[in-house]
Amino acid sequence: MMFWDPRMEEMPREELQRLQYRLLKTLVYRLYSFSPFYHDRMKESGVHPDDIRTLSDIRKLPFMYKRDLRDNYPDKIFVAGQDDLVRYHVSSGTTGKPTVVGYTRNDLDNWTASLARGLVSCGLGRGDVLQVSYGYGLFTGGLGLHYGAERVGATVLPTSVGNTERQIELMQDLHTTAIACTPSYLIHMGEVAEKMGLSIKEDTDLRMGILGAEPWSDTMKTRIEEWLGIKAFDIYGTSELSGPMFCECSEQKGFHVWGDLACIEILDPGTGESLGPGEKGELVVTMLQKEALPMIRYRIGDITSFEDGVCACGRTHPRVMRISGRVDDMLIIRGINVFPSQIEYALMTVPEVGQHFQIVVDRKGALDDMLVRVEVSRESFSDKITDLMAIRKNVEHKLRNTLNVAVNVELVEPGSLPRFEGKAKRVIDRRKL
Amino acid sequence: MIETGRFLIKQISVFSENRPGRLAAIAKALEEENINILAFSIAEADGFGVVRTLVDKPKKAYEKLTGLGFNVAFTDVIAVQMRDAPGGLYEIAKMLGDGQINIEYSYAYSGKEGAVLILRVDNADQAVRLISSRGATLLESRVFQ
Questions:
Q1: CATH number at residue A346
Q2: Residues A277 and A385 in one domain
Q3: Of A91, A146, B48, B98, which is least surrounded by CB within 10 A?
Q4: Is A96 left (phi over 0), alpha (psi -120 to 50) or beta?
Q5: Is A39 part of a structural domain of the chain?
Q6: Mind listing the pLDDT tens digit for each residue in A52-75?
Q7: Shortest Cα distance, chain A CAs vs residue B67, angstroms
Q8: Which residues of A touch B73 (CB under 8 A)?
Q9: Dihedral (C-alpha) B51, B57, B63, B64: value to the nearest 10 degrees?
Q10: Which domain holds residue B18?
Q11: Beta bridge partners of A283
């Protein structure tokens, strides 16, 4: 078993937590003294650095949100001066104004070290050719993976995104063994290869994909692995955390979050209550060593769960599962948190209906009422009303089992539900609260 | 042995959401293709329905409606002539009942050929043989199509 930094990666849990506490304490004092933004936040919340006496006191600290970066555009919450910065990245701003992140020399070193550990943990190293098909430039994906892979001794092929046919030629000519890109781009690449009369599985040396930057499901992972003949590893990060930061190890049971760099919590997005291992909730991240742009209890808005036990690979750092949804999409139905992604997942197991759906939430009397509209597929339509009723009942049953809340299902004509390019708006909430 | 196939009539079944304008959309599509509707009925369930219709050009109707995005299926039905007088339905229904033929659904019209009962039964071949042997008149599919 290969480790990049065995002392850190195998650090006993108690020692790791002591380290996290020391780093947190230092961070809070530093911010209280040098960050007017976070100083005010702490004052408003009535917290003083002296109140942080154990690691779990992190819960006393106020949250940070994406809007804090937008409101302080471009660099008003940076703690380092411009002369200490060695790089900027800028997020695309698909959900609002763009946000700017900055890095000191140490920030870049920690980012690269985090990726070096992750890449080695999934089996990348000297002898590999990593094709980096994430965008290079203002986006963090390309440059992040680039330096991480160089650090572990892999040969980087910096193709960036686009010009897919050329990418496939280079993949063959330079014997690419690993690719870093979004899962949807890899699927696109596989399709383009087939149009060129090639099979990635048969005609290339590709053996692994390091995939992230967008939500993807187990179904997609299985499809990619079987179709392309590779192992698909999840990688996670956002520009606020530095960029792509944490990567699944060879066990493929969630990505390790290095405790010396980040402290994670999973919270109930409705109540803010802290959740334990295996419980699904909102991921909240505190970056323990960032200098230019410290992020404390940052609410990224991603939904997932974590596992706390020592991994079979030997690493002691907690693992976070693949992201299963966004907090913005969450609905609370009769007190139960419901995510559209769960509905998507459940519908995949019912071939009689398509994968498009619409959710209509209303309030009948005092109770929330959730209706899910699904399209009857052409293949499964029969003239018999009883068959159609059975399909509907089956979908209702599957949804109830997945969501733990009763759902009404309406069968609609194929093609009648709205289609979306990009971000889907699948929920109509008619409740007047 | 009677050859039953010629008595099996291709009915068009169309899935329809239960909201205003859906029947009009189906009827308009058929009108555009100059397709004549000979008989039809609507079966309704909670929130959706199935429009069942006999048309003179079922294949063309299927293509047109499918092209518009409708969910369409062919179903075999049979058509029995009835006396257009009190007791006409009873004669046919009793015949089927005595012969242990189960009716899944049925609709009727009274037109040029007199009164006609359209039937969807669980075993069409058996029903055709029974009805013929009891002396009632089945309409061949070519009468419609």
A1: 3.30.300.30
A2: no
A3: B98
A4: left
A5: no
A6: 999 999 999 999 999 999 999 999
A7: 11
A8: 381-383
A9: -70
A10: 7-75
A11: A266
